[in-house]
Amino acid sequence: MARAEVVRLIADSLETNIANASTYFAKVSSMVPAVPAEAAIVESDDEILHRISTRFNMLDKMAHGALAGTIRSMICFGAPGVGKTFGIEKMLRDQSEVEYDIIKGSCTAAGLYHALFHARKGGIVILDDCDSIFDDEQTLNLMKAALDSTDTRNISWRKMATWVDDIDEGDWVEGDKIPKTFEFKGSMILLTNIDMQARVAKASKMSAHFQALMSRSLYLDLTMKTNREILIRIKDVFMNHMAPSMGVNQYDAAEILAFVNANADRMTDLSLRLMVHVVDIFKLG
Q1: 2 located within any domain
Q2: What range defines the domain where residue 57 resides?
Q3: Which candidate, 108, 117, 123, 208, has a CA 20 to 30 Å from the CA of 102?
Q4: How would DSSP label each residue in 243-283?
């Protein structure tokens, strides 16, 4: 038999065997019951509220720890305008022993160095949705120094800068200028809209900085990433706290809340701040 003929017979045999095997396995597969995919866990509104409320209770406990000086650093991530700051500000106002500085909006590295210096003797620096600092390596490096886990945390500004020498500090008993190095014995609370875990996962240039901040801090995710979760939080706070304090009865509060729920997808800022504006408009009649 010619070599070409042998090759052709082998090829035909292989093709037949593969076809037969495919048919066999198809029949066997059809006889094996399909394994149902694991059903997605769907939380009820009450379960979501309980989860979120538990996180906010933990936020209060962590803030108490920072106030007592037992927690050097805490980071709380959550959607904007859901009440991250309210409880902490009230806690700080109700005490007079610990000095604190709440920074909102924007802050430069120089501004942060100045704030840390003022809080160096056990004060607290709170960065409230001041997310621009997370795009600047200088401020990130200052925060890493302030949040270090070593017994002694020295913060330095060794760059050529005239602002350090130009600022008078009358309350500094050791001199009248901000030093280029000082020991920090305070705490920091970072309230942010930035998901640091997601930033670390992206493996970008800044990921190492975010990882370093998280490793130095207690990190709390309020787990509110969907409109449904935010609306459940808004309903709880608005009906039980905001509406009564704003002089809105339960009937009108329910009507206001129904309007927000119906138009949630059209809202550009789904938050507790939005509820204040809606109430103002509602009161106009």
Answers
A1: no
A2: 45-221
A3: 208
A4: HHHTT--HHHHHHHHHHHHHTGGG-S--SHHHHHHHHHHHH
